[in-house]
Amino acid sequence: MLNSTALTGYERDGFIPAVDVMSAEEALALRQALEAFEKTQGGQLAAVQRSRAFLLFSWLDKLIRDPRVLDPVAQLIGPNILCWSTIFWIKDAGSKQFVDWHQDNTYWGLSSRKVVTAWFALSDASEQAGCMGVIPGTHVGDTLTHEDTYDENNMLTRGQRITNLDPSRAVLMPLRAGQMSLHNYCLAHGSGPNLSDDRRMGVSMHFMPPETSQVVGSWDCAALVRGEDAYQHFVHTPRPRFDLDPEALAFHTRAAGAMREVLYAGAQKNLSRL
Ligand SMILES: O=C(O)CCC(=O)C(=O)O
To answer: Are 51 and 256 in contact, with CB atoms under 8 Å apart?
Structure first.
């Protein structure tokens, strides 16, 4: 559970840098499950497999419901919790890929400011490996101006970036495999390239209270992972009984498509990065 210092820090700064979730061995088993899947298809995840993969992999379906993840999240957003999406963030060793400074509330179409991202490390995300950094306090006040650059190495859907930001205020959030960071999705965040000799592998899980609604997309879904949903603004997703369960797989096609529609709304180009 989060202590009062962490909770006060979250209110003031918009993030909590490192929370222990599980041992490095347990996290390694999840990494191995993902890498075994990559092997079966002869290479990295396809873009569409990066998003909402809790509908594809039963280990990820379990992670978004794991009390070690949800107990701290409940302290931040309350007892009733929907998981809007998950996204894999994998930077191979030595790759030039980076994530420019951005605020997720600018393009997720969600009505609430109370959305929290739990970024879980499947491998060590050190400073050298390009861990995430945040700009404290940017989760309150006006949203900052963004521009779409379509930069080929920027992993964001449109290669977006905040135009006028002082990166000297950044705080880095290195994580060991098995830890997670928590940040409010209105907080400016980003990450540099992976200069280590191992893959930097993480999955972000995006949790929201059920009063949230989708204001951009025409149809959207979410997993009810704890408590009750008195609002029913999102269609509840099915659970995969096993990896690539055909029923959940068919739902994933629609769910990933709906998310892509939201993320690319109003963009000049669709780079199909998710
Ligand atoms: O993995 C990264 O470096 C960035 C992740 C991110 O932007 C997010 O979780 O919202």
So the answer is: yes
Q: Which of 54-58, 148-152, 260-264 has the highest mean pLDDT?
A: 54-58
Residues 100-113 pLDDT 10s:
999 999 999 999 99
| Site to substitute for ligand 1 among 16, 119, 124, 154, most atoms within 8 A of C-beta | 119
Judge if the beta carbon of residue 49 lies within 6 A of ligand 1. no
Q: What is the pLDDT of residues 223-238, one digit of tens each?
A: 999 999 999 999 999 9
Binding site membership of 89 for ligand 1 (Cβ less than 6 Å): yes
pTM of this prediction?
0.97
Q: Take atom 9 of ligand 1 and give the residue whose Cα is closest.
A: 204
pLDDT score recorded for residue 273: 74
Domains, the chain, in order of start with CATH, read 4-263 (2.60.120.620)
* Confidence band for 218, pLDDT divided at 50, 70 and 90: confident
CA distance 69 to 21: 7
How far is Cα 80 from Cα 112, in angstroms, rounded to an integer? 14
99 Cα to the center of ligand 1, angstroms: 7
Atom index in ligand 1 nearest the CA of residue 191 equals: 3
